[in-house]
Each structure stands twice: as structure tokens, then as C-alpha cells.
Amino acid sequence: MDELAIHRDAIRDLLARYTYNGDRGRVAELAACFTEDGVLEYPGANPIGPEAIAASLSSGTRNPELKFVRHHITNPMIDIDGDTATARSYFTVHTNIGPDHSGTYDDRIVLTIDGWRLAHRRVRIDWQSDTSQFRPMVTR
Q: What pTM, to 2 d.p., does this model score?
């Protein structure tokens, strides 16, 4: 396997680790996908660094009706330039109501001593169900 393919595979693994850990409520493991000064930009928040990201995702009250959540990432478009990369992916979130919301991830990723890490992730919501299990989010 050539070096570019190895890096693309490692970045896809990073995207999957973020998603699997988030869906299982393992916010510290999700936050570990970021660099020390990494940013998670999502509707209503902009925490910087793994500790702040974990705290932000753990704040607030969870909807007691939310019994199931799965993020599905599709079509990751990855561009690598040396030790930096960008990725853009679609995502759809399913909950116990079915399709709940969807949007895009716009990522800036860097190669660190610990492997590829998110330097900046912007979450944009394209659609949210009227019966969403999540708080209302600003959509495009």
C-alpha cells in the first residue's frame, strides 16, 4: 500500500473513532481525536482543546426520550498535503425516531506524534426533523 493510501486510511479511522466514541457517550475518547488546541465548532459552542470539548459535550441535560443514537458518515473527501489534510464528509444521525438530523463535517487535520488529529472540526446542520431528539439547532 502506498504512503498516501496509508494516510487516507488513518484519517478515515480517526473520523470513525470520533463517531463511535460520541455515539457511545465516551466523550473523553472523542475529545482525544483533537489536537491540544483543536477546535470543535458546532451550533451554539466553540470549545478549544480536548478538555473543553469533553466538558462542552457533557454539559446540558440529555433528552430522557433519547434511547438510541448513531452517526453515519459518508463520502469523506480527503485531501492530504504533507503533514496536513482537509476532509469534508456528510453525516446523518439516526435516533429512536429514525432520521433525526444531517449535515456536513468540515475538518482540518494534522499529523502529530500520536497520529492524525483534528485541528478544527466545523459541524454544519443541513436538516433537522421536527421531532428531533436533540435541541433545536441552527440550520443552513
A: 0.94
